[in-house]
Amino acid sequence: MARDVQLLTKGFSPGKALGLFAKAHPDAGGIASFVGKVRPDGGVKVLELISYERLTLPGMEKLADEVEGRWQLDGLLIHHRTGHMRPGAPIVLVAAAARHRRDAFEAVDFAMDHLKSRSWFWKREKRGDGWHWIEPRAQDHDDAKRWDI
Amino acid sequence: MARDVQLLTKGFSPGKALGLFAKAHPDAGGIASFVGKVRPDGGVKVLELISYERLTLPGMEKLADEVEGRWQLDGLLIHHRTGHMRPGAPIVLVAAAARHRRDAFEAVDFAMDHLKSRSWFWKREKRGDGWHWIEPRAQDHDDAKRWDI
Amino acid sequence: MAVTVVFIGKLADLAGEGEREVAAPLIWAGLADALGAEIAAAVSDDRTKIAVNGEVLADKTALSASDGDEVALLPPVSGG
Amino acid sequence: MAVTVVFIGKLADLAGEGEREVAAPLIWAGLADALGAEIAAAVSDDRTKIAVNGEVLADKTALSASDGDEVALLPPVSGG
Q1: Peptide bond into D75 cis (omega under 30)
Q2: What value of ipTM does the predicted structure carry?
């Protein structure tokens, strides 16, 4: 299976990355994907995502291992930003190419749930009154728990 | 909610359509999508999808109504091909933009399950020995049943 | 004084054409006379549906089409 | 003869810097002496983890870092 896992320090175009991913997997019956962006609500001016070199990318690779082990895929892409981002900027792109639709969907869904609550990122938001550290929403924890068998 | 439902008679670029959809929804926190293509296995040379004007597009609009009613979305895109397609060609693109990830995922998942087994399309494949009519896989029926409450 | 009958999918193969004009009115009991026994038998299949002017009949045996109506004979859908 | 301590997220705010060199060896009981009571208290929080050279300790009180090691103090992750 072709895998493309990247921790990005600069802005990226999810549309372009998806187009290349689709081209790289002409034989897959379907491609499911998710793009997460900085939400412009709550007066957020800047979002900062902090990674730790020795854990973050290795953790993303481990996640990809787990996804590959659970679902039958032709290809898997996980691109995740780190650093400072403005509202509307893409943070994460996950895409899975598979012969069967359900495999592609579940792989992306699982990877996103994992990334949102269990991956090695720390996050803070700059609002009018300065920086605030963010923890995962309870919903994100619940989402991730769905997969614990 | 902005809705873009189209029955297409010619080839299209899912990447381009997704890019435009993302641009049209800068405020959405996330966009989930699925692209289904003609699978190149089984010796299929051409796939023909047949629609019936008075039911197919109205049915897709009704599906979009149902999706809108079930999930909180900022935008919904359903593009579906009809006519003759070669292996590797895109058949369907569904994308949902939402504030919350789960809404976007489930909306696309549901719409795909519906399109794959309950929408007004008839399908045949041309193989080495001629044309064969296709019915939904049992899996597709089971997928759709998941949503029947 | 005609009803347009639209044949979809397999039924178009069977009919040898995509649509045909038949004399109005067209009712369930008159299908074999209007379209032949083979097509009438295929339409009797539980999974075959009938739409009149784009409205799928809940009970296809209640078919009653008048002049100008379009009757579509719909085999089981394949999905997209 | 130094251990590099990396402060992540909130802990970097508390430390006023991203990393600091402290004398080796560094063990759990020596954290307050090496980094101050405030940081040691924050590291005691159940949800704070410790990694040594990129390996997260299952039991952080077993911390035992030698010269050249990198010790990362990890607050609860926020998710991406």
Answers
A1: no
A2: 0.87
